């Protein structure tokens, strides 16, 4: 299967990959084209050029796409919208399905990959915290669900770093009646607010700062294999910063 993957939850990432199942039940990815830019305010300007280059590469142009995968956030409104609209346009014009994967899920899976490569822990729990601006983070707890997927253990919250551990502790599953434990903290929130790792009494893992175009393909394939529907509904969690002005009141 040939998949175009787009993530615009922080900067802009784009990849075209061929995928194939492996003997251990995971998915192998062959990267045909990949590009990214770090500017968090130039998604619309960069996506068109990145797409043109990626889809015109000889190894990509030789065969049509089978699907598009796009990050659904949570993330700031403008960047996330640019990626999802682009994915939708590509899906419609090429007649292929578009699947959505949360950016936080991709960060969690990358963090678990890094943890499993260096340490053996029994069913580790990852706290993902990504930058939500306004001195807040998007945060949730995750565990692995097989070699390519994750299970979200809590609802995604948007709050200050000081509130994260308290809110997560209220929602986290408990083992043996004790409080839930956190093994690693990942994401751009971990980079901006190191007190998160300290408060959670765990180590800091700087996995991708926000989302990952390749990892979200693995997650999408694992979920499609189970027959799940992958909504492209964006996870804004906040209203847009720019609001339409209210109608003027009449003076009597």
UniProtKB/TrEMBL annotation:
Keywords in UniProt for this one?
Answer: Transferase
Q: Which GO terms describe its molecular function?
A: transferase activity
Q: Which GO terms describe its biological process?
A: tRNA threonylcarbamoyladenosine modification
One protein family per Pfam: TsaD
> Looking at the keywords, is RNA-binding present?
no
- Keyword flag Transferase: yes
- Do you know which Gene3D superfamilies this protein is assigned to? 3.30.420.40
Q: Which part of the chain is the Gcp-like domain?
A: 40-167
Instruction: Report the superkingdom from the record.
Output: Bacteria
Name this polypeptide is given: tRNA (Adenosine(37)-N6)-threonylcarbamoyltransferase complex dimerization subunit type 1 TsaB
Species of origin reads Actinomyces oris
